Amino acid sequence: MIKPKASTTNNGSPASAFPVANPTLPSPIDDGVGLANVHLNQSRRRLLDLLNKLYNTGVQADVDIPQIAVIGSQSAGKSSLIESISGITLPRAAGTCTRCPTECKLSSSSSDWTCIVTLRFTTDVNGQTLGQPRTIVFGPAITDKSNVEERIRRAQRAILNPGTSYQIFLDGDDEDLPKSELTFSTNCVTLQISGPGVADLSFCDLPGLIASVGAGGNNNDIQLVESLVTSYISKPSCVILLTVACETDFENQGAHQLAKKHDPHGKRTIGVLTKPDRIPTGEEGRWLRFIQNEIEPLENNWFCVKQPSSNDLKQGVTWANARQRENEFFSMTAPWCNLESMYQKYLRTGNLVERASSILSDLISRRLPVIQEELQKALRKTEEALAAMPKEPSADAFSEVMALLHTFATDVSFHVDGFRMAIRSTAPQFVPLEKRVTQDFTMTRPKFLDQEEGTDADATDEDSLVEHIFIDEVMARAQKARARELPDNYPFVVRAKYVSSITEKWHSPAQILCNQMYNVLFKYMKELIHKHFASFGQGNLEQRVGVILQNHIQAACHRAEERIKWLISLEARPFTLNEHYLSEYKDKFLSFYKAVRQSQRNPELLASINDHLTNPPKAAVYNRSGHVVTDAVQPNGIAKILSGLAEVGILGVKPEDIPKLLPSDTMEPAMTIMAEVRAYFQVAYKRFVDNIPLAIDQELILGLEQDILPTLYSGLGLNGPDGMRICQELTQESPQVAGKREELKKRWERLSAASRELLSIGL
């Protein structure tokens, strides 16, 4: 072993250490080296304070935040280095302190020294990643440093046994279990230490890398530890504090290879040689070459530190005394004391901490703009994810249902239009010609109907679903029904039978309309129910509300069907007080039928009438002086007939009235019956297509709206003594949705808090 050897300068005086690490008197407070010293400028202090504030928000789970990770092989002296920096004692029980990560969040404070221990679980009992890290404060704050070691030891047991309540390890005996549930864990113990002289720094002591496992060990632990270390050091903002024990061959310490894999150019790795007092005799020169950055060079160089042994700590050596002994070792022991002054700054823990602090603060300064940008991107992404989540339970779902019912009403109009066309298609298709002469005949639609109902209703006879009724068939039925009536008078029963044969066809379209409205309403209600209740009670509330409203809608539909039957029964007997409307249509249809009949007997007359209606004669055109510019066309044809009738005092005759001037037709009574029935159809069908939708709307739509809330209250049992309990059970959001929303909200809160911290320093 290397023995301490006093060295002298050329003038014989004792050699002094490198100025950065001048020996200091023991601190009145027994702290570690720390970073909270007066030599740190204000800018660096602000950056280190900001880093700790960012970590306090928990945003490191979402954004790459600068951190120092201490890695090395087992027994490389990592924990001793952590102890010297933090000023606390870590557990020394075999196999415990290196089995899970220990994150340290150190901050300088003028308040009394305190340490808060927390457990942070990122995986569940089965090792599956949690959507949101679970943090548990592990006991009250510690104000006595001597109690920290035991609390950490208990916390590590809780981490290694996630299937057991943490309270057992916090309050039970301070004894290791015969066998832990896990040998290693990615979940970590977090130490939040603050007080005078405490470092402003965040770092993590990771489990030591292992090359093999002992008897009864799990080979998977090798990969587990490597993956755990990789999850930290692979981040671009992680400063790797690589510890290498000088008592073991460098090539046998795999931590360096892993660090080099993720930092191949050595830009963010700080090498730390530990246990220099255990270098075998004759091998000192090789290790000095690391300090001189000749072997495995790093941008931030290699350092060498000497920490107190476990026995030293057991004997009560304070950290202040340990730092003094370290300084004496490097000042008086060859070959360390003989290093050139330019390399002396890479010896001693104080110099290492100073350099680590500088590197970390510089990294924070460079990363701040990038962190802010990443925070904003993450915030937008989180807000978008929250917006895409199912809507939270509405405080007034009933009002929302009513609003959507109004939207539903607009869709109902489409089905009402279809019903109107269906009823119109039942119009009697009277043909004022004998059946025997209509083989190649197509009767056009009356133009006055086009003006009233549009040209797309039923343009030709062929579009109708009703069979044609020819004039000789109407005459035959009239003659058969006639008894003692006067000539040309035929019993009303003829008209009534035609009307009855028409209205009996109305039940099917009316029922179809009712079914359509029921289907549309039920579809809308299912969508509304799903929208409001799908995420509640794991579907129980949605199912119960669906059944209640389905029964409610069916009952309303049955009432509407009864109304339809009643209205159809009213239409079975011809009746109207709208005699003017009926008479007007009778005249129009009678003229139309006569014109059609004359088109076969006098085709030239009908053609002339149509031509006159299409191309009316032009009147004379006069200028402002009253002189004729364009002479009026001399009347001829239909115009001449109308002019002649006007000359003899017969005024108001229309072109379509001219067929009435023709000699009487033997089929005149039949055409009159046809015109009366067809005119009555116009009156009755328009009345019917108004009344049926009105009745359906009254029973099915308005009825549902009026009774929906009492029906739901009654069906769900909310009016009873257990109403509050039922509400709490049914309206409870599903754990999956609630958990996801809570995760996103917490992430948003973390990101927002971190963003505010950045803004507070003027970024």
Describe the structure.
This protein folds into 3 domains: 300 residues, Rossmann fold; 273 residues, Four Helix Bundle (Hemerythrin (Met), subunit A); 28 residues. Helix 6 links the parallel strand 7 and strand 8. It contains 23 helices and 13 strands. It is an alpha/beta fold. Strands 4-3-5-2-6-1-7-8-9 form a 9-stranded mixed sheet, sandwiched between helices. A two-stranded parallel sheet has the order 10-11. Pfam families: Dynamin_M, Dynamin_N, GED.
Tally the helices: 23
In the CATH hierarchy, what is the class of the largest domain? Answer: Alpha Beta
Compute the number of structural domains.
3
The share of residues in helices is 40-55%
Main pleated-sheet profile: 9 strands, mixed
The rounded distance between the terminal residues' Cα atoms is 53 Å
Secondary-structure arrangement, i.e. CATH architecture of the largest domain? 3-Layer(aba) Sandwich
**What is the residue-mean pLDDT, rounded to a whole number?**
76
Q: What fold name stands as the CATH topology of the largest domain?
A: Rossmann fold
Name of the CATH superfamily of the largest domain: P-loop containing nucleotide triphosphate hydrolases
Strand order of the largest sheet: 4-3-5-2-6-1-7-8-9
What structural category characterises the helix and strand content? alpha/beta
The proportion of strand residues reads 5-15%
Strand element count: 13
General shape = elongated
Output the radius of gyration.
50 Å
Which regions have little confidence, pLDDT < 50, spanning 5+ residues? 1-29, 34-39, 397-420, 457-465, 483-489
